[in-house]
Amino acid sequence: MKGIDALNKRVMTAGIELGRVVDVILDESGERAIGYDVLCGDGSHRFLPDPTARIDDEHVEVDSSLMLLEREQLDFYREHGRVLRS
Predict the structure, then answer these.
(1) pLDDT tens across 61-71, in order?
(2) How many Å apart are CA 36 and CA 84, to the nearest integer?
(3) 33-40 long-range contacts, CB within 8 A, separation 24+
(4) Which end of the chain has less Cβ packing within 10 Å, N or C?
């Protein structure tokens, strides 16, 4: 599963670390990653949708910090999906 590869990796944009993936949000069946719970440098958790993330051996790359959605979106996906760490 692609999402597991992102767990604990740094989230970066243009060489700047935005945070770290602390959990993977899966679809209701638990078979596909739909996004990531990212603990950001300011201490807040944000939602990173899977299609916006490029995962490599070193880190997770995004085109912009705007790809990280606010806590309300993270809460929505946690409620309607499955959380890998649960």
Answers:
(1) 999 999 999 99
(2) 10
(3) 33/1, 33/2, 33/3, 33/4, 33/6, 34/77, 34/81, 35/77, 36/3, 36/6, 36/11, 36/60, 37/74, 37/78, 37/83, 38/11, 38/68, 40/68
(4) C
Q: Domains plus CATH for the chain?
A: 2-83 (3.90.50.10)
Tell me the pLDDT band of 86, cut-offs 50, 70 and 90. Answer: low
DSSP H helices, the chain, are 2-6, 71-80
**CA neighbor of 33 nearest in space, from 78, 75, 1, 10:** 1
Looking at residue 5, what is its pLDDT? 87
Given phi > 0 = left and psi -120 to 50 = alpha, else beta, which region is 8? left
- Write down the pLDDT at residue 2: 65
